[in-house]
């Protein structure tokens, strides 16, 4: 697609001037099932490799098809496969020329758990070999499990891009609900120094603070010790650290996209 404005650079090159070389180094798994449905699986994947100017490599194609549980379907026409198996073929086609940069456009949308597992195993292998992977997903747990860097996009605007661990540490929070044995009328100073709130009925102490580094959990432990020293009994503690989805929702709310 020709850009309507601006420039696109990849591998230090302007794609408008060196698109053929750059395209050879890029792989794409599209969201749509776009392929020749009458082609047998192995031939379709071999053909994709050839489109990028690479010599046939039966061993590499077999490795790919086996890793995606497609080897037994290698002679089957794509139109005869299930939706999940067709998506596996798209992934195999995208990986057939061993790209240095791989775009995955919601590759696991509506697919089964087994396919996700197989695909992430293959992606982990490519990442270990140095492939840069750009993943678009609505499954935030996938970004949390797989990504080194995370970008949050809403309404066509990039709200944030950062290293995942740094983002979690900076924007993460710890929440804890401490059920008290008897109601409190007010918090003693030794407890009020922490980021806690007492419920209206005086039976629950709510903590929200810390960050994604573990400081919050340590502070919750300090609160429980302070309760014990103050002679305040508690009967239950529920501690929860925020995840990437919590951070995502907070960002949307703060930017008026909720």
Q: What do these coordinates show?
A:
Helix content is 39%, strand content 21%. The chain contains 10 helices and 11 strands. It has helices at residues 19-24, 41-51, 58-67, 83-95, 113-128, 140-146, 164-171, 189-192, 215-229, 244-254, and strands spanning 9-10, 13-14, 26-29, 101-105, 132-136, 149-154, 157-163, 174-180, 196-198, 204-209, 234-241. The chain has a 4-stranded antiparallel β-sheet with strand order 9-10-8-11, covered by helices on one side. Strands 3-4-5 form a 3-stranded parallel β-sheet. Strand 6 (149-154) and strand 7 form a beta hairpin.
Q: Counting H and I runs of at least 4 residues, what is the number of helices?
A: 10
Counting helices, strands and paired strands, the structural category is: alpha+beta
Strand content: 15-25%
C-alpha geometry: elongated
Average the pLDDT over all residues and give the rounded result: 86
Task: Give the helix/strand layout.
Elements: E1 9-10, E2 13-14, H1 19-24, E3 26-29, H2 41-51, H3 58-67, H4 83-95, E4 101-105, H5 113-128, E5 132-136, H6 140-146, E6 149-154, E7 157-163, H7 164-171, E8 174-180, H8 189-192, E9 196-198, E10 204-209, H9 215-229, E11 234-241, H10 244-254
Parallel strand pairs: 3-4, 4-5
Antiparallel strand pairs: 1-2, 6-7, 8-10, 8-11, 9-10
Helix pairs in contact: 2-4
